[in-house]
Amino acid sequence: MPLKTYLFLSGFLLLLFTASCTNDAGPPVQDVAPAAPPREAKPVPKFDRDSAYAFVEQQVNFGPRVVNSEAHRHTREWLISKLEEFGAEVSRQDFTARAYDGTELNATNIIARYAPEREDRILLAAHWDTRPMADSPLEDDPNAVVNGADDGASGVGVLLEIARQLGMSDPGIGVDIVLLDAEDYGQANGGNRNSWGLGAQHYSRNVPAPKPRFGILLDMVGARDATFAVEGYSEKYAPEIVGKVWRLAKSMGYESYYVNERGGAVTDDHFFLNTMAGIPTIDIINHRKDTESGFVPHWHTGDDNLDVIDKRTLRAAGQVVLATVFREAAGTL
After folding, report:
1. Which strand ranges, in their side-by-side order, compose the sheet holding 174-180?
2. N or C: which end of the chain has fewer CB within 10 A?
C-alpha cells in the first residue's frame, strides 16, 4: 500500500468530506441494521487461518513481488493456478502502464469469478504486488528489501482462503475475486495520487460484465493487534456496506479488530473502484493514529516480513468477509 494521501480528519473536516454522515460526534456505524427479506441461508464456512497463513508464506517465499521482476512473474502463475484449482473461472487482465519515474510496467490483474452467469455479484479485492523501495519515515536503510508480508500478501492470502471455501460451498451469489497489480509503484511524499493503484485504474476502465454490486478491498490485514477503523472514502462512497460489515463483525465478536471509530481517508485501490468504476467499495485496512506515517511501524520497511503476521488477525479479516458474502446472498446482512 502506497505512501497514500492519509488524513486523520477532524469532526468538522469529515463533515465537509463525508456527505453520508449526519452526526460526526457519534460513531460512524449505528446499531440499527436495515431490514431485508431473508432467502435461503447457507451455513457460513469456517475460515481456516492456518491455510491463509500458508498462502501468505508462499508469496513471501517468492521474494518481493515488484512489477517486472522474476518473483512477480512466478507469483502470478502460482496465483492463477491456485484460483483455478479452487474452481474459479480465471482470466488475466494484462496491461502496460507508465510509472511516475518513467518505468514501463508490464502488469496483470487476475480476475477469478465464481458463478460468472449470475447478475448479482460481489467484488473482493487485494493488491498482489509489493513496494519497489523502502521509503517509510521509520526506515533508515535505503537498501532494505520490502517483502510485503502484510502490505500485499496478507490480503491476497485471505482471499485465496476465501476462494478455497467458495470452491467447496456455493453461497448463492456471484463473487469476483480480483487481485490487482501495480498498486504500490506510486510517487511518495505528496506525489500524484493517480500514480498509485494503476491496476485498479485499469480494472475500473475495463470491468467485466456483469458488474459487481459492491466491493470489499483488503489491505494490510495480517499484523498482530491490527485495528480496522472506518476509512474515510469507504464511509463517503459506501456507507451502507460499512454499516453492514462493521455490525456483522461486532455480532461475531470481532469488534476489537473492526473498531467503531473514524480513521483517515486513504488513497487506496478502492478510491478508483468508487470514483472510476462506480462500484461502492470499502477498504478494510489497518491504519493507526499513533504513528508518524499513519500506518504500522513495518509499513514500507524491511521489517514487513512473516514475523509480523498473526493468524488471529487473518481469521478476523477473512471470517467476517466470508460471512458477509454468505449473509448478503441470503438477504440477512
Report:
1. 89-98, 104-114, 174-180, 121-127, 214-219, 281-285
2. C
Domain ranges of the chain: 11-330
- Please give the sequence-ordered ranges of beta strands (E in DSSP) within 23-156, or none if there are none: 89-98, 104-114, 121-127
Query: Which residues have C-beta within 8 Å of that of residue 328, sequence separation ≥ 6?
Result: 122, 173, 244
Q: Would you state the pLDDT for residue 23?
A: 45
Kindly state which CATH superfamily the domain 11-330 is placed in: Zn peptidases (3.40.630.10)
Cα 142 to Cα 130, 134, 300, distances in angstroms = 16, 6, 11
pLDDT in tens, 3-23: 554 433 333 333 333 434 434
Global pTM value:
0.92
Compute the distance between CA of residue 196 and CA of residue 192 in angstroms, rounded to an integer: 8
Yes or no: say if 327 and 247 are a contact pair by the CB < 8 Å rule: no
53 near 307, Cβ under 8 Å? no
Q: Which three cell numbers stand for residue 146?
A: 520490502
Q: 3-class DSSP state for residue 245?
A: helix
For residues 315 and 333, what is the distance between their CA atoms, to the nearest angstrom? 19
Calpha distance 154→61 (Å, rounded): 13
Which residue ranges of the chain lie beneath pLDDT 70? Answer: 1-25, 32-38, 289-290, 292
The pLDDT tens digits for 177-236 are 999 999 999 998 778 999 999 999 999 999 999 999 999 999 999 999 999 999 999 999
What does the block give as the cell for 252?
Answer: 461475531
Strand partners, 155: none
Cβ neighbour number for residue 332 with a 10 Å cutoff: 14
Give how far Cα 183 sits from Cα of 157, 198, 233, Å. 17, 6, 17
